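Suppose you are handed a protein chain with no further information: no name, no annotation, nothing but its sequence. What can you learn? This example shows the usual starting point.
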Amino acid sequence: MSSTIIAAYAVFCVIVFAVINMMIRRKRNDHETELIAEHESVEEIVNQREEITLPQDDDSSVQVLQSAATTMIEEVEKPVSMPEQKKQTRASAPAEAEQPAMNAGVMLTILIIGMFVSILNQTVINIVLPELITEFNMSTTTGQWLSTGFMLVNGILVPISVYLVQTFTYRKLFLAAMMFFTVGSIVCAVATNFPIMMTGRVIQAVGAGILMPIGMNIFMMLFPPAKRGMAMGLLGVALILAPAVGPTIAGWLVQNYTWNIMFYGMFALGLIIFFVALRFFTIEQSLSKPKFDVIGAVASTIGLGTLLYGFSEAGAKGWGSAEVVSMLVIGTIGLICFVMWELKSETKLLDLTIFKIPAFSFTMLINILITMTMYGGMLLLPVYLQNIRGFTAIESGLLLLPGSLLMGLLGPFAGRLFDRYGIRPLAIFGLLIITYSTYEYTHLSMDTSYAYIMAMYTLRSFGMAFIMMPMLTAGMNVLPMNQIADGTAAQNTLRSVAGSIGTAILVTVMTRQSAFHAADYANEVTAANPVLHTNFTQVGQGLASLAHVSAQTGTTLETALLYGQVMKLSTVAGINDAFWAATILSGLSFVLSLFLHSPKKHVKK
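A reasonable first move is to predict its three-dimensional structure. Written in structure tokens, the prediction is:
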């Protein structure tokens, strides 16, 4: 059944891509005519102004937007009074050049809000899943496909994003992404069974798979390397705050209203963003329009899809499961075929030569280890808080909320530090804090206070603020502009795989170590121990007396209580061991960060 669903997803993605291609290509000829006329008018203006010269390989609208975006960041950092001479120069500039500059801030705001809503959608499904399982009368395994299927479609579309960026304008791609997200949201809102809900989730995943890569590409294109740290810090606010507030909002809505309200709200937000973007999202870029690499797309779809599914199921079904092993083998073979084909193909789906740049590959390796650590911690703490300590979903979300908010709000500040000092000091500082705070979670017990857990998570998030977006930016800054799309796709793909691997590894460690500790407790609690046997008999008799039942029933009750307590203690011990594994990953990242090369200041062109 699982293999059939995976195959259906692959076919659906191909159909969706064909539909997008047909819909957008209908207006391409008209758009090209408009671009030619626009370029001719720009050339006339340039000829009239002999003192202004533009490089031939740059797009004029991109230059204007880049200048406007850079100016916007500088104005955020410090107010600058405009001299009279500059005022006169600006007044003499044509009105056509001022319009994109005025729209740059609005366009970036639309982009950030759109990405925020898209990521918010990914994080809330786990909160409403219990309600959906009950209402749709489905098993937990089936319900998990609402999350797993979203991840698979998203991961499959990311490598294709390079072709999309080179073939269609950012405006068309953003509008298409928001259209898919909005339609998927309303389908989920009106769903009455699992197939309809799954259809809505897949449509949403198509929008997210298009939106995430182009968002990072736009930021990289608009801002020069010396300003990308601050810019990516602003983008990080959306990427980090959405997972922080998503579970809390979803938990509150589910507890006080119904799960449908959440999807109706996303539909309304998506609709507003779409119509605002239709008016203000006017960015254009030069298009190379390459041929579509069908073989590479098929190989990456099979490889990434089966690999992500295998890792997502390994934690629950075990690494020795026939389904998991087969998926991992097929995924590995698919990725090997993809790499071999891309290295020799003339029309590449993804340019793998970016990994020949040492700085990019090294920062990518550290980013993978950090992602594995972060995803594991996000999974282990809710298990401990809700399953062991008995906190509600809202209480668990509120405990994680301050740290996540701090991490999002510190993003622009960390970006400024990155622009000024580079990545090395930030990485050493941040990873030192992350390693220490992760280590503190290796001592959890049944009595660990709520405030202490919150304080350690807040400290851990404080360290993450200096790592996540600056490390991504450091890797992208070493790439030339014509490889930015390839670098973005590679980073998003590897982070998705790293998150799945990290989750699978830490869940496996927790499960196996919990069973190991439970066996140890069972060996200690035996009738051969006279003291324990005497206490056990006395407690059983006391329970029988309190419950007014027979001595045998009292012994049975005591055995059930003791077994439940043993399982909780063994699970806590297993979680501690899993955090030990996360600490090792974080420590390895810290050691690698010592070898990062980081000039104090970026060189401005």
